[in-house]
Amino acid sequence: MGNNQLKIVIILGSSKWGGGEKHVYDIIEHLQKKIQFTLITQTSPILKEKFSKLKTKHLEWNMNFKSITDLLEHKKQISYLNTQNFSGVHCHLNDASFMLSTYRPFITTKILSTVHGFSSHLYYLFPHHLISVSQAIHNYLLNFSKKKSTIIYNGISKENIINKQTKDLQAYIFATIHPNKGQEFVTNTLKNQKQDSKICFIGTGPKKYQNQLKQAIKSSNNDNISWIPLIGDLKQYYKQASFIIIPSYKEALSYVALEALNFGVPVLASSTGGLKEVFEHEKHGLFFKAGDSSSFLQMLSLMEKNHLIYRGFLKKQPFLDEKKHFKVEEMCNKLYSNYIEYFS
pTM value? Predict the structure, then answer.
C-alpha cells in the first residue's frame, strides 16, 4: 500500500445483508487495490462471514445511544477515529449517519454519507458531503443538503442473459417483508382474483410483518400466491421467472430491478422514486401507479401477455450495454473521483 494512497474507514450502520450492504461490499472489492479500507459494522455473524472474503480489516461497533455504557463506548470510538490518521469517513445507512453526525464536533476527519433511502432529513444535515443513489433521492433532500450532494447510481456486474427454464407463468417479489415493500397491497388486490401467473414472495423480515403477510396470503383465497421465507442467492429464482414484480410504495433505486434486467428478466414495478430512472415503460417492462389496485391489475394482465416481447428487447440489447451508468465499474470510478476530491 503506497504512502500516497487514501486511508478510508467505511462505517455501515447495519447487522443484516441487503442492498446497502452489497453496495459497500462492491465498493471495497473494486477499490481495495487503490485504497486502504477499514470496515466498521454493527455486530453481525452474517456480515462477518460475507465481508471476510475481502480480507479487509473489519471491526464491530456499538452504535446504540441507550445507556452510560453506550456513551463510554462512543468515547473510545471517537478516540479511535482521531488516532488512526484516516483520510476520510464514508458512512452508510441511518445508524451510521446518525452516529457520525453526533461525532462530527469531536473528530477532525471529513465525513461523506451515502443516502440510500427516503429517511429523515436529520441524518444528512451534518456530513460534509453526500452521495445520492438516484436523482429521486437528490430531489428529496433539503436545499441545504442538495448543495453538497452528488448523484452516483448503484452499480452491478454484467451477467449473462438467463434463458427461462420452466414453461409456467411465474412472477417473484424479492424484498424484505415490510409494509413499504407492498406485499400486502399485492395480496389484497388479488384477493379472490384468478390471475394467470403464479406469484411468489421471497424474503424475510420482522416477525410481526411476517405474521401479517402469512395471514394476508391465507385471507386472499388465491391459490396462485405463495411465500418462501428465504435470504440468499436468488439466481435460481431468476431462472424460473417470467417477470419480477416490485410493488414498493417508495424505492430509492432497487437492486432487484437492476439484477432482473441484467439477467434479461422484465420488471413490473410501481412508478415511484428511483425506479422511474432504471427502465423504460413497454420496453424493459411496465409501470403501474403505486398503491393503485386498478392500475396494478391492468399492468399485470398486460405483463402476462407481453413479457416475452420485453424479454426479447433485453436479449437484443442487454441492459448494461444500454444503461452503462449502472455498471459497478462506473459507480466505483465516480466514487473514487469523489474520494480524491474530498479526502485528499
Answer: 0.92
